[in-house]
Write a structure and sequence with these properties.
Layout: H1 2-5, H2 7-22, H3 26-61, E1 66-74, H4 95-105, H5 108-118, H6 124-127, H7 136-148, H8 151-154, H9 164-173, E2 174-178, E3 184-191, H10 194-252, E4 256-257, E5 260-261, H11 262-297, H12 305-311, H13 319-342, H14 347-399, H15 403-438, E6 444-448, H16 461-486, H17 493-500, E7 504-509, H18 522-531, H19 543-546, H20 551-565, E8 574-579, H21 586-599, E9 604-608, H22 615-620, H23 628-632, E10 643-645, E11 650-653, H24 664-668, H25 671-683, E12 686-690, E13 709-715, H26 721-730, H27 732-736, E14 738-746, H28 748-751, H29 764-768
Parallel strand pairs: 7-14, 8-12, 8-13, 9-11, 9-12, 13-14
Antiparallel strand pairs: 1-3, 1-6, 2-3, 4-5, 10-11
Helix pairs in contact: 3-16, 5-9, 5-10, 7-9, 10-15, 11-14, 13-14, 20-21
Length: 776
């Protein structure tokens, strides 16, 4: 019923929401952000202030730290006069080598050297006497290392070596890193004193360079001693080898010219001539083979220019053949043209063919002549090759007798030459090593010494405060989001429409009525009881009439208008007012709606059907002795049970409970109850029924047969969607007859922070323009 009755209204609302979603995007995000800030700005501000306060406290209790920097250049270029004199190879500073130098700078040896030189064991920054939070972790770690390592007390370390805690504190304050992809290393040291930081940083660089020089000097000295011994041995070996060569030559009568023997030179010359003769014979043979191939594939009757071209280029170099070939091609062209013009068997064409045949025969004859010439050249070359081969064989046979001696002399000469070359090399190295010892130079140098820093490196005041502020804002935003996520209650009309699939009939503001009404006198109370006049003690239930130009009254009118305009098969005359849980304001809404309808001139009766907790009766008719139960049981007539409100012509049928009722569901669903409401429907224009809540009781489900429509009251900021949805799901017959929901006890000023799209709707200026006021 509800869905069918609200098709048109729902369609219009969906169109409006669709248009708004199309125009969303960044605007929706901005609106959500502004609304979030309006709701949670206090949380964000408090979190930011606390974070800044903690940051300020940290800055006050943390001692300042100054960082001094010194830059060291690796791969220092040598002086020109010593570049080629170093015995040791120059290091190639690749990524691995640079990382090695970084570890050397941070090594224990450098730390011990600097600590001993500057006597840092007495410095409060290293011996732990300076109390600070920054040194707490260093002292704890040093204590653990001392517990794990007792080598110093056992005599494994030198007596003058500093304590482990001092070395650990020193290494914690030291850092070394490569600058970009260069060969420059930057060494940094932290200290509570700017001058002390610069002094220690420079001392570290000095100790590192001194260590490099000492290591290189020791290596050069060791290499020089070894080279000296090796040179003496090589000199004796070279002299012995020379003597052996001369003695062997004398014994075997070996005579040489230009370093080679006579027989060897003759064999070499004959080998060269043989290679040339073989090449000439090969060329003559190839030339003869090409001519013979042309003659085999061509005959006087079938030779053609095409086969001659395929045979090779030697025949084409002959001027005679080229001339005959040109004539042949010219006749071939003319024969082709004349055959096409005069016919294939024309006499002139036949004569051309005969002439062409004669030219082919002449070409072959010339080829035969060239072939005979090539054959003669081939025979001559072949004979020359044989002669040279015979001479080479004789020379080889003659040199075999001296081959053994030649091999031996060559071996002796080669060994003597190698020893002389090795001796010269070692001699050069030895001289360079001797010069290098007198001029030591390091591959590293300081290019930018450390100077006392002008400002502290940490803690940075601006950075700490900025981080504190940002962290506080982030924490505040996080807490605000958490509060929004935990705020699982109804805040806007859109939540009602989306979560309950019900239209929001009205947004009723919270009533703030000053408690200034005077209690009625006993005489007046007795008169009201005799005349059964509705009590005026509760100003809340009469606010709609007492404050006609208030926002509350306008919200109640919105509910009445929604009931009248609701499209249904029958007129909505019996209206049930219920809620999901108690104390959500359903009784106040029911009483105010009835007061407003009665004040408008309609005949209206309000019935208290909350039989287990008749709070409306306790407010409007606190002295009633009979009620609806007596009427349906026939113990009391209806006319003598109802109460009247002279101001609004409101009729009230209370519920009087003498003892706890156990079967209220059977009472509300009885036939006598149906007949009672039929009587009321015939006598009154509107029947407002104050019903019990849905969640704790099932009484409301029994009233659906005699109630035309239901209105659900939802309390702003208290009713939870899950609870309300479960209550409606458990009463489907009530949900089908429900025309909408009312958002009650709404904080209008706070609504601006939740419903940004309708913020103008909640402005007081629009209502003040028409004389509305929330005061009584």
């Amino acid at each position: 019923m509800l869905q069918r009755s609200l098709v048109e209204t729902g369609t219009a609302r969906n169109d409006i929401e669709g248009n708004r979603s199309e125009a969303g995007g960044i605007a929706d995000i901005i609106n959500f952000s502004l609304a979030f800030l309006r709701r949670q700005y206090l949380v964000i501000i408090v979190a930011a202030v606390l974070a800044i306060a903690f940051s300020s406290v940290y800055l006050q209790i943390t001692p300042p730290t100054y960082t001094a920097h010194v830059q060291i250049l690796l791969m220092n270029p040598r002086a020109q006069f010593v570049q080629q004199q170093s015995v040791l190879a120059d290091p190639l500073f690749d990524l691995t080598q640079i990382e090695t130098q970084l570890q050397l700078l941070k090594s224990r040896a450098i730390a011990v050297a600097v600590i001993n030189e500057l006597k840092l064991e007495d410095d409060p920054d290293f011996n732990g006497s300076r109390a600070s939070l920054a040194s707490l972790w260093s002292r704890i770690r040093a204590w653990a290392l001392l517990r794990l390592k007792d080598e110093q007390s056992a005599g494994l370390y030198a007596p003058n070596e500093p304590a482990e805690s001092v070395i650990s504190a020193f290494q914690d304050k030291l850092s070394a890193s490569r600058i970009g992809v260069s060969n420059v290393i930057e060494v940094s040291f932290n200290s509570s004193s700017a001058a002390r930081a610069a002094e220690i940083a420079n001392a570290i660089a000095k100790a590192y360079i001194a260590d490099q020089l000492n290591a290189k000097f020791d290596a050069n000295r060791s290499a020089t001693s070894w080279l000296q011994e090796r040179l003496h041995d090589l000199g004796e070996q070279a002299l012995t080898a020379d003597r052996a060569v001369n003695a062997y030559k004398s014994e075997n009568n070996i005579v040489s010219s230009g370093g080679k023997s006579i027989d060897e030179e003759q064999v070499t010359d004959l080998n060269s001539r043989l290679v040339a003769a073989r090449a000439q014979t090969s060329d003559a043979s190839a030339k003869l083979n090409r001519y013979e191939a042309i003659l085999r594939t061509n005959s006087a009757s079938s030779a053609s220019i095409g086969t001659l071209d395929a045979g090779g280029s030697d025949a084409l170099t002959s001027p005679i053949i080229n001339n005959l070939r040109q004539q042949y091609l010219e006749l071939s062209r003319r024969e082709s043209e004349w055959s096409a013009r005069f016919g294939h068997n024309h006499l002139a064409v036949v004569n051309l063919r005969t002439r062409m045949q004669e030219l082919r025969t002449s070409i072959l004859e010339e080829v035969k002549r060239l072939a005979e010439t090539s054959r003669s050249e081939f025979e001559v070359a072949k004979h020359r090759q044989q002669d040279i081969e015979n001479q080479l064989a004789e020379a080889v046979s003659q040199s075999r007798s001296t081959s053994s001696a030649e091999l031996t002399i060559r071996d002796l000469q080669s060994r003597a030459k190698e020893l002389h070359s090795l001796y010269e090399t070692f001699l050069q190295r030895y001289m360079g090593s001797v010069q290098q010892e007198s001029f030591p130079i390091s591959e590293a140098r300081v290019i930018y010494p450390a100077a006392p820093p002008q400002s502290k490196s940490k803690p940075k005041t601006s950075l700490i405060l900025a981080l504190g502020l940002l962290g506080g804002l982030a924490l505040g935003v996080g807490l605000g989001l958490l509060r929004d996520l935990m705020d699982r209650v109804f805040r806007t009309s859109a939540q009602i429409e989306d979560l309950l699939d019900l239209p929001c009939l009205s947004i009723v503001p919270v009533l703030r009525i000053p408690n200034s009404s005077k209690p009625a006198s006993s005489h007046q109370a007795d008169d009201d009881l005799r005349q059964r006049i509705v009590s005026k003690a509760s100003a809340t239930h009469h606010a709609a009439v007492n404050m006609p130009l208030s926002r509350f009254s306008e919200a109640i009118r919105s509910i009445k208008l929604a009931i009248d305009l609701s499209s249904s098969k029958n007129a909505n005359r019996v209206i049930g007012i219920t809620s999901a849980l108690p104390n959500e304001g359903k009784t106040t809404i029911a009483a105010s709606l009835a007061q407003l309808i009665g004040h408008g001139g309609k005949k209206v009766v309000i019935v208290d059907c909350d039989l287990r907790n008749p709070s409306l009766s306790a407010s409007l008719a606190p002295n009633a002795a009979t009620g609806i139960i007596e009427v349906i049981n026939g113990k009391q007539p209806l006319e003598e049970t109802v109460w009247q409100d002279p101001k609004t012509n409101l009729v009230f049928l209370p519920a009087f409970r003498r003892e706890p009722l156990l079967h209220t569901t059977e009472i509300l669903g009885a036939e006598t109850m149906h007949r009672l409401f039929e009587r009321l429907r015939a006598a009154y224009d509107y029947i407002i029924v104050d019903l019990p809540p849905l969640a704790p009781l099932v009484d409301v489900r029994a009233t659906s047969p005699f109630i035309d429509c239901f209105v659900l009251v939802v309390e702003w900021g208290r009713s939870k969607p899950d609870v309300v949805r479960h209550a409606l799901h458990s009463a489907p017959n009530i949900y089908e007859c429900m025309i909408g929901a009312v958002l009650n006890k709404t904080d209008i000023k706070a609504m601006i922070r939740y419903d940004t799209h309708k913020s103008d709707y909640y402005s007081e200026n629009h209502y003040a323009h028409y004389g509305f006021s929330d005061s009584a």
